[in-house]
Amino acid sequence: MLTIEVNKDGFVLINHFTGTKYNTHDIWQYIYFLAGLSVFALVIIYIISRFIRYYSPSCFRTNFDLLLGASIFILSLILLKALAVFIIHDTSSLQEQRAIYLYYIPLFPCAMSAILYGVLMNVVSGYIFIIVLCLCQTILYGGDFVIFLIGITSVTAGIMSSHNARRRTHLIRSGLLIGFIQAIAIASYSIANGFQWQIIVSHAGTGIINGSLGAFFTAGILPIFEYLFKVPTDIRLLELSDLNHPLLKKLVMDAPGTYHHSLIVGNLAESAAEVVGAKPLLARVGAYFHDIGKLKKPEYFSENEWRGKSRHDDLIPSMSSLIIISHVKDGVDLARKYRLNKNIVDIIEQHHGTGLVYFFYKRAEQAQQESDIKITEEEYRYPGPAPQSKEAAIILLADAVEAASRALENPTPSRIRNLVSNIINNRFLDSQLDDCQLTITDLAKIKDCFTYILTGIFHTRPKYPKDETAANNEQQNGHQNKQQTETIQNTPQTD
Ligand SMILES: [Fe+2]
Ligand SMILES: [Fe+2]
Q1: For residue 352, which ligand has an atom nearest its CA?
Q2: How far is the CA of 326 from the centre of ligand 2 (A)?
Q3: CB-count exposure of residue 169 (10 Å: 0-12, 13-18, 19+)
Q4: In sequence order, which residues have a C-beta less than 8 Å from that of residue 156 and are 6 or more positions away?
Q5: Rounded to the nearest whole angstrom, what is the distance from the C-alpha of residue 324 to the centroid of ligand 2?
Q6: Rounded to the nearest whole angstrom, what is the distance from the C-alpha of residue 400 to the centroid of ligand 1?
Q7: Is the pTM of this model over 0.85?
């Protein structure tokens, strides 16, 4: 228990657990130490990050990553120093046995940050931070190299296991894994040092406590980091992928065609993101929300038109194009209103890039020939920008492919392949894929992936073999001209 007393020299922090008092001078010393160590460590991380970014551009992609990593780092270092002061450096007034029992408790902030880095950051970028944090931890333990080994072993396992965490319960799994590895490492080192079994058991116990505390604290502060740094963690995305989100519920009621289209785009985008190493869950959730702007005027979009007259029949092409283009801005406004993650807002904004509203542009061109009105291509283009991430580009392609495949007559595998190939080539030549970091190899993989899935969707059902007796009877009766009809009649009712 800690209390603060104020006297004429300033304030005094009292640790009632050990009876130690820390005056203002001591506290300033700790702050200077922390500030110096933080700056030193962050300079090291910055230099390494520049080096890694040069050879692997997906790591430390923006300075925002550095800021996020540095925030977790400084928080952990403050906790580490506080625990070190109260437990490691305070043994003079602490009962000797108690000091030995609690010796490994200050390893807990590293366990916590391993889980945070795994969930919030690119795994390589996070690993650089955690290695340097383990080194700082070793400095605080007076350069005990064993502490570095124990730390690095457990956090490596922790960062790996938490990186794919999709539910908040997975954080507990990661924490327990860190605790278990720490317990084994600490206990085996204690055995090697010939400690009494009570101490060995308590040391192993502190390992488990560290892992559990790490998971517990991570679960508490993760939403703060998600909010402050707008990080689309898999945990948050999975919550958003719940089809009960108010916007998706509105979409299913007011624009069922768009809802169905978004689900298929989601499946296409998720599979393509998986094969090119992008974020599959972000691609799926981004696809679910990409057309929410159509909620404003759902009846003006072909997928929501019920057979009959189109709303555009009575409009001039420029007005139709304006309505179609406005669904992007309306989508962005709605996404911001419902506080969707920034990455999803970006996907909505970029899902048509600066593409041309081809149908109405061609219609306007025809109208132009009959009148004097001059049209420009720019008037019929979306405002953009072109996709800036792999996920946004994949959704742009999946969206176009899904919409075009609906109009495909007799969709054989080769026709589907040609369609997908043409759409990807057109978007590439129209400079829509210039800023998204997808390579030509990635585009080939995406083409195969889309073709495979669409072929599955449009597959033709094989004809069921006819019942033998029925076939014999039919042959006897000479009704071979009815074969097709009977094949359908013999098809089982349940599918
Ligand atoms: Fe759209
Ligand atoms: Fe769409």
Answers
A1: 1
A2: 13
A3: exposed
A4: 127
A5: 11
A6: 9
A7: no
Q: How far apart (Å, rounded) are the C-alpha atoms in residues 172 and 183?
A: 16
Structural domains of the chain, with CATH: 2-231 (no CATH), 235-457 (1.10.3210)
CA 316 to ligand 2 center in whole angstroms? 23
Q: Give the DSSP per-residue string, 260-300.
A: HHHHHHHHHHHHHHHHHTS-HHHHHHHHHHTTGGGGSSGGG
Query: Quick check: helix, strand or coil at residue 348?
Result: helix
Residue with tokens 């785009």: 265
pLDDT of 31-76, one tens digit each? Answer: 888 899 899 999 999 999 889 888 887 788 778 889 999 999 999 9
Highest mean pLDDT pick, 252-261, 373-382, 401-410, 458-467:
252-261
Residue listed under structure tokens 């505390």? 213
**Residue 231 C-alpha to ligand 2 middle, in angstroms?**
24
pLDDT beyond 90 at 424:
yes
pLDDT greater than 50 at residue 323: yes
